[in-house]
Amino acid sequence: MMASTIPLDAVGQRIFCNGEYGTVLYVGSVPPTTGLWLGVEWDNHQRGKHNGSHEGIQYFKCRHPSGGSFIRPNKANFGVDFISAVKKQYGLNEDEQDAESGTGLLVIGRKTVETIGFDAIKEKQKQLNILNDISVDECAVSRAGTEGEIRRTCPNIKRINLSKNLLSSWKEAMDIACQVESLETFNLSKNKMKFPSTPPPASRAFCNLKILALNQTGVTWTEVLLCAAGWPALEELHLASNDISLLKRPIDVLHNLKWLNVSDNQLTDGNQLHLIADLPRLERLILSNNGISSIHFPDVGFGCKTRMFPSLTHLVVKNNRIAEWSVINELDKLQKLQSFDCRNNPLMDIDKNIETVKQLIIAKIGQLKLLNKSEIFPDERRGAELDYRKKYGIEWLKAGGNQDPNKNNTSEEFLAAHPRFQLLCDKYGAPEDGELEREQPFSLKNQLLALTFKCPEKPDQKPIEKKLPETMTIQKVKGLLYRLLKIPGSELKLSYESSKMKGKEFELDNDLKPLQFYSIENEDCILVRW
């Protein structure tokens, strides 16, 4: 609906015009032209033409030098009230509302059918009356409307999706929520709103609210804390894409928060996280795409558990700048961390084989059960920890480690780099000389494993000896065997027998894993069955 009359408080209001959203920052004349103009700052600065000035006169200011323009008032859609949008979205159109007798029009999807009198209208109104979920995203909602109308029309609402509308202030959102007594979920994302700079008046509008989404609203963390006193039951808060760079310690607010999403912000300083580390019930923290390069918990040393984030079980740091193993060491200090997602960080590219990196992370964080959305099975953890113990055994010996516990005097420097190493030695025993990975100059020759393939159920088949790269996947090994034995890979079942543990077999059950994942070594034997 295009507004031919301008609201009295038009400055600061949100508008929609030809597919673009903007905020009115000026109402008045723009000489030498005649008539009334609206000065608008567009969300999409490419829609604009200037910075709010015309012929040397500054009428309003834009954040972007070409983000503004002037439009005539009749081009601007100032939006509709909440219930008008609901009735339009849910099929109760104006023809039905105005009908007094005779036939009305009922819209079902794209079809319009005749109805008799008020029967169909009452049926529709009854449906609005029992609705728990209301979704009016992108419906140009700008205000609550007539006092009490939401409560009368939709008394049973629990969840509202109001994303990408024309709400221009937190007050307008509160005016809607005040009439929804059982409101549990409120999605206000993509509404560029003005938030209070002082604590808003006490209200019961959000006393039952559990989930609040304020993504792309322009809210700051300080403004969140000012409003948070009114969200006593809040469990889930989404604040993605708000350019938040600074946090502040919550005092007497957000005590029940379990889930916090601050992805796509500017929290480049990992020390900012210390300010929210006392949230007592926070279980999930999403920090994707923030430019974070370091995380540390200075209250305790390695081998101890931090008091920070006491309930945190899930941490997501995708698309950041984490490149140091020290960050992974620090995360082992968390008391309850079980799920960690660090995809698309430089750390994941530190080794040519991503599986090796994953194994090191598993070995370094003892309680982890999910890594990058993949479950960590007990055998995988055991293999990762044993490999870690072997991989750094030589370094451990050089740093003062000793297989005799009474002579063990490992340097602080080594323990800082490998804080779980001693624990793994206690768990599996100190690495023995035969297990240690000797340092060798890099060459393909040193990466090849001399393996023997045997077919225990086919005595006529002679053993096959091959040298294969340790990074070769089981799937490719099966492809090689297909060419040698003419048996399709799908029919092959592989296991291996260690040269050091004769008679004990280990199944090679994951086609996507490399040979090194199973700790296969030189002179081991791979058993082939079909």
Brief description of this entry?
The protein is of the alpha/beta class. The chain has 14 helices and 26 strands. Among the domains are: 14-75, CAP Gly-rich-like domain (SH3 type barrels), CATH 2.30.30; 380-435, no CATH class; 444-529, Phosphatidylinositol 3-kinase Catalytic Subunit, Chain A, domain 1 (Ubiquitin-like (UB roll), Roll), CATH 3.10.20.
Report on the architecture of this protein.
The protein is an alpha/beta fold. Among the domains are: 62 residues, SH3 type barrels (Roll), CATH 2.30.30.190; 56 residues, no CATH class; 86 residues, Phosphatidylinositol 3-kinase Catalytic Subunit, Chain A, domain 1 (Ubiquitin-like (UB roll), Roll), CATH 3.10.20. It has 14 helices and 26 strands. The chain has an 11-stranded mixed beta sheet with strand order 10-12-13-14-15-16-17-18-19-20-21, covered by helices on one side. It has a 5-stranded mixed beta sheet with strand order 23-22-26-24-25. Helix 8 crosses helix 9 and helix 9 packs across helix 12. It starts with 13 loop residues before the first strand and ends with a strand.
Q: Do you know the CATH topology of the domain at 444-529? A: Ubiquitin-like (UB roll)
Mean pLDDT: 88
Runs in which pLDDT lies below 50 for 5 or more consecutive residues are 94-118, 439-445
Estimate the global geometry from the Cα principal axes: elongated
Termini separation: 71 Å
User: How many H/I helices?
Assistant: 14
Q: What is the CATH top level name of the domain at 444-529? A: Alpha Beta
What is the count of β-strands? 26
> Largest beta sheet, briefly?
11 strands, mixed
